[in-house]
Amino acid sequence: MYLDYYILENLLINYIIINCTTYITKIYTKKSRQIFGAVIGTIYSVMYIYKELEAFFSLPAKFIFFIIIVLISFNITDKKEFFKILFNFYLVNIFISGSTYFIIYFTGISHMTISFFIICSYISCKLLKKIVNDFRLLKHVDDITKKIRIQILDKNIECIALLDSGNLLQDPISKNDVVIIKASLLEKFLPKDYNFEKMDISDIQDVTDNLEPRLSSRVRIIPYKHVGDNNAGMILGIKADYLDVDNKKISNIILGISNFDDKEYSAILNPRILY
């Protein structure tokens, strides 16, 4: 029974660490790869129980397994990206493990309580994400344009985006960043002749009902408010597969649909996405 708990505990915590590293590095990685990497890490943890396998836990062997988990868990395109992920993965491990044991030591609750141990790891992951986001916000970003490529339902959309430091929209639930795009870019997916500027809950529901099931499950409601305007509005959001900018695939992106009219760009990019 204890072994079952041990395996489940390691599987979930390994996944939390891998997922947190994906968020921090902002490199697109499929969930299946993250889960597979967590499974490999769990297998390695189980090996620790058996004395006859102690040779696998020498410092060189640990480093090799560390690299194997990184190669399996992340979509790596070049050496620079590999070392970036490896370094961040190592730091995330240190931070989550250290802060988790600190919480356990501070509260006095035994780490053998699996649910509490996993909750501590999850809290540590959230705390690390918050710290990283705060550092990113300290950077000043000038307004420039970027060529971006959006993948949604295995279809690619290319356009020019304005990098606007004033666009800090986020999904209020998941806290994922929002990229505002012209509705015309998604004309193959959305109902025609619809005003996406002034929407309420019923309007969003009408649009959702007319989307194909694979797309309707990705719908998000994004509240927004213009400066100097006391009336809050809503934007229809759709989660993309990923955003490709500067040859980097970024996951956890919400597309905010708008009817804005500008010939020089077709999207407004949140500056936090690039850092």
UniProtKB/TrEMBL annotation:
Pfam families: Peptidase_U4 (PF03419). Probable aspartic protease that is responsible for the proteolytic cleavage of the RNA polymerase sigma E factor (SigE/spoIIGB) to yield the active peptide in the mother cell during sporulation. Responds to a signal from the forespore that is triggered by the extracellular signal protein SpoIIR. Its main location: membrane. The keyword Hydrolase applies. It is found in: Cell membrane. The chain crosses the membrane at residues 6-25, 32-50, 56-74, 86-106. Belongs to the peptidase U4 family. Keywords: Aspartyl protease, Cell membrane, Hydrolase, Membrane, Protease, Sporulation, Transmembrane, Transmembrane helix. This is Sporulation sigma-E factor-processing peptidase. The keyword rRNA-binding does not apply. InterPro entries: SpoIIGA. Its EC number is 3.4.23.-. It is an enzyme of class 3 (hydrolase).
